[in-house]
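Title: Comparing notes on inverse folding

I've been comparing how different people in this forum approach sequence design from structure. To keep things fair, I'm posting one structure and asking everyone to reply with a full sequence. Here's the target:
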């Protein structure tokens, strides 16, 4: 059974940094896509970043380019989201997700991801 466990959320002041982690178990990751999405209250879930497990691509939402970095540790089956220069509008529950061998263009759509973590809250105060 595939499980995704996120950690690293919290409360931070604007301009600060956080690093989210997502550990995957129950499946050997190969050419899979892993993504980060977020959902603020009363808003739809939105794409943040994605990475191909074979190293084929990384992709970012325009709103986080230059501030967030997605990376992976193959040995630990873990994907990270380093978030710098955080803004109040980044406040949301952040979810990691695992899909199959998705093309980069598909990774912005939550419906293409099969497995989801439980979410971790990120709150940025002004």
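Reply #1:
Here's my take.
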């Amino acid at each position: 059974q595939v499980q995704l466990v996120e950690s690293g959320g919290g409360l931070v002041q604007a301009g600060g940094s956080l690093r989210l982690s997502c550990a995957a178990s129950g499946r050997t990751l190969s050419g899979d896509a892993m993504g980060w999405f977020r959902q603020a209250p009363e808003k739809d879930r939105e794409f943040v970043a994605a990475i191909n497990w074979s190293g084929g691509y990384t992709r970012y939402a325009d709103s986080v380019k230059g501030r967030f970095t997605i990376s992976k540790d193959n040995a630990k089956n873990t994907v990270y989201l380093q978030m710098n220069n955080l803004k109040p509008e980044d406040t949301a529950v952040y979810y990691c997700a695992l899909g199959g061998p998705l093309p980069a263009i598909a990774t912005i759509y939550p419906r293409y991801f099969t497995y989801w973590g439980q979410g971790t809250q990120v709150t940025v105060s002004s």
